[in-house]
Fold:
Amino acid sequence: MMTMPATGFEQENLFSIMESLKYQDTKWRDGQTFCLVYDGGKEIAEVNKRAYNLFMSENGLNPSAFPSLKTMENEVVSIIAHHLGSTGDVCGTMTSGGTESILMACKAARDWGIQHKKIKGRPQILMPESAHPAFNKAAHYFGLDIVTIPMKAFRADIIAMRQAITEQTAMLVGSAPNYPFGVIDPISDIAQLAQEYNLWCHVDACIGGILLPFFRKLGQDVPLFDFTLPGVTSLSVDLHKYAYAAKGTSVILYKNNDFRRNQFFVATDWPGGIYASPSMTGTRPGGAIASAWAILHFLGEEGYLKLSQTIKQTTEEFVKRIDAIDGVTVVVPPEMSIIALSSDQFDIYQIGDEMGLRGWYMDRQQSPPSLHLTIMAGHAKSVDQFFRDLEAAILSVKTISRKLSNIKIQMKKTFMKSMPQGLVSKMIRNEGQAIRDNHGAIPKRTAAMYGMLSSIQSEGDLIELVLNIMDGIFTQKSTPISKATKDSDKFVERVADVS
Structure:
């Protein structure tokens, strides 16, 4: 059990320990990470730190106490609304991230559907299978049902969406672009369908809302996806992605304040007074609001265009070089800066393992098996090294040992499919328990694991396995690292042991 130290650490030792902990983290500053961190460079980082620190203690929960935060939040929302096609009526609030923005849109659509469409029972969300799992989370939290629409060319099938509409339908969803494949759903058709049936249309532009309008200004043919389409009701856009604000900044926008009112929560009978909250969280960090306001004003259109041009050119360079390598391919030509890297000759997860051993961090994807690459400005400096390592990784996968590994995976998959389901479930539970007991440790080579996951036919078994992994990850190890020693040199040794 972790306990508070009896005496405090000296600052020098304390921060030495924290720096040593960072040693294990992915090397995003070297342009080797393709998700999670959006690096705009040292100068942008310094602006973010300075703005965040200036308002670090302020709380956005009560705007009347901190009118500075109210002013900055309203200006951020107004700037982003204008960036995304508003002519004056579009409004919104800031949130802690894309997931919260999507949660708020779904909650608002639920309340709107019950009140205005008189939906009885559980309102439905219709969304393509490529839509972000935050919608599934919202449905789980708010008593909604998800109806998944198949994809056509990795985009929402608008005909299937039309056919799926029922009296329970409240919201239609499209992505600009979707996260797995980097292509834009037919938002114009979805918005028109929403108008036809009087439905709520949400556009998930969390990753593309900032970048796509700048790509359009740089000459790319970007389809309409924002409030220039009259059928769009709400839109989510993250600022801690391609707007380069500090982590914990997103915006949820609505066509007008009549729709936004469905987002708010009010309690009037609490002894502590009237409680009103615009979003999921109560306390809202003032530093995040200040960071977003500062970085929008620091970069301006000129700065964002320059960064966007670098991203666009770097994405095009990645696609060109991938096309020139035998053995790997792009799943679908990207419409922004997201690439799904696949292979029709090799196990792409094995290639991912080899790249991971060389320091590259990429998400593993499924349906089809692929590696996820979100291209950022920082990757311009690491293109050559990436492709040297990619060619080396492919060469390694070609070796006999890797081929034998692939044969073993196929044999295990075949064996699992022939086993009684009860025995498979027991085996998966035992495997999950072992991973949990090992504190959620995932091996550096994961191709075999992902190969096995595709053979698990029971969703319940798969969920149980993932829950065991999460249990392990969020369970304190027997010896807290920070208590191992207050000597930073020995602490580094301790970190190496844990690794």
